[in-house]
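User: Modeling request: complex.
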Amino acid sequence: GAVVSQHPSRVICKSGTSVKIECRSLDFQATTMFWYRQFPKKSLMLMATSNEGSKATYEQGVEKDKFLINHASLTLSTLTVTSAHPEDSSFYICSARDGTSGSQETQYFGPGTRLLVL
Amino acid sequence: GDSVTQMEGPVTLSEEAFLTINCTYTATGYPSLFWYVQYPGEGLQLLLKATKADDKGSNKGFEATYRKETTSFHLEKGSVQVSDSAVYFCALSSGGYQKVTFGTGTKLQVIP
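Assistant: Request completed. Predicted assembly structure:
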């Protein structure tokens, strides 16, 4: 099946620094990628949708200047958490949709990135 | 807006027991329904899906039927194994398949 990777899997940073998380589709072209945030014992919350070569669409309440998303190629999207604070600590998950597949409603998920801001 | 409600866990079962994880949804229009599974340390994997009323999705012994009249998509398996231990997420997709709404997840633990 389709594989999506994320890097890093875990990151610890100091408050005020920026952190970049990469999401890659390994064996398919992802015209659309999604970024989610998962809080403990809560469901995944969609943060933004990014389409290759265009600006990301952010969900209501998500600060676009804080969570910078770049989808520069069909296999890579990045999420940068700028000036991170302890409340940004969370589990961030990306997913990708195979733009060439007939089953376009299926999203393939990465393994997630655990961010801890001290 | 769209929402998905699933039973809180954790659910602990003995091997070979029958499994049901309840899921109900609220959505406008006619959503597609999914069950995703997250094994420890791994990402979410699509387990099964159903795209219209009365469809039954099935995979690896799991099945779920899209019930429009009760807005439900309960996950069932006749005989669970230790390897089924994971977190299960019910989800729906609507509006041109752009956005997926997830339930809170139900942790299943199967003991030998």
